[in-house]
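Can't paste images in this forum, so I'm doing it all in text. The chain is below; anyone willing to post the predicted structure tokens underneath?
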Amino acid sequence: EMNVGSSLVASAIEEACGTSRSRIREMYNSLGDL
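Text version of the structure:
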């Protein structure tokens, strides 16, 4: 489950990689720790 800290990391990944939050969530669910 993604928490507040993970949400900040997801925002950074989203901005740095130009991917969507939903895609990051899919990758997190399938791969685990990003």
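The longest helix spans residues 4-17. The radius of gyration is 9 Å.
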